[in-house]
Fold this protein.
Amino acid sequence: MKLSDLARVTGARIEGGAPDAEISGAAGLDDAAPGHVTFLANPRYTPRLQTTRAAAVFLAEGVEARPGIAILRAADPYLAYTRALRLFYPEPDFKPFIHPAAVIDPTARIGEGVWVGACAVIGRAAEIGAGVRIHPNATVYDAVSIGEGSVIHAGAAIREGSMLGARVIVHNNAVVGADGFGYAKDEQKRWLKIPQTGRVVIEDDVEIGAGTTIDRASVGETRIARGAKIDNMVQIGHSCTIGEDALLCAQVGLAGSSHIGRRVILAGQAGVAGHLQIGDDAVLTAKSATSHNVPPGKVISGIPAFDNREWLRSTAAFRRLGEMQRTIRALEQRLAALEMERSGNAS
């Protein structure tokens, strides 16, 4: 691909490079070879611009590269680089295929161009849209619907009644629609299982990581809105809602009936108690846990989580507690000496 074509497709402009130069791939600063395009988004890695072998680099305004590297000036170098990666490494094509070892119920409706791997199971009254790929050993329960272009990876289970939109990706060993964790205590103080009669609805363009579990509601639905991205090993309890373009990182845990707003970021191992509202664009930093509602746009940290700036000041003070204790003791001793001196003068 010519440098000029790459600039046009990624929304960048060329500085200091030949428009007809051939770009053959994309890679990081350290891994790039001659003919590759790379990027710099984090100023920490600026020195690596001096050693990279890349032919071109996506840079933000005001950042310069050494002579000999073509600059592709972009408002967001990481986004431009991502688009370049997608150009050079597109999803591989596949031909429609149903493995003879797949088990498909006669009442299931299978769309055009579907690929189904060995030992995959598709249950009664399931609806599989056009161009769906269901990899080996995946299980699609009864009355599931999967929208066109979706991908169900090996070992994943889509439980009964779940609804998946178009272009949904479910990675290995994820479980969509397992029973919600609901029990009532009977007269003998034993746990009585509450029937989980609801469903899970996954809207278009959602990605669900490996080993993630999304529970269906006891009544009603658990809903993951369009464009949400869910990492590996995430637990989403029954009756939760996840807003559009939310980002849930690894090992996040949501108790039942949590409501997560649009574009919320829950960093790794963050936890949200049940029946809470996390407002649009809020951020919980890694290992944070909240037992209260979070306003829109708020960044919180810690356990229990509170304002991120206050948390940073508090953790800085925590590291100095030993020093502060010594200072306080010294001040107490000086104060005691002054009081003794004062009482002696008074007598």
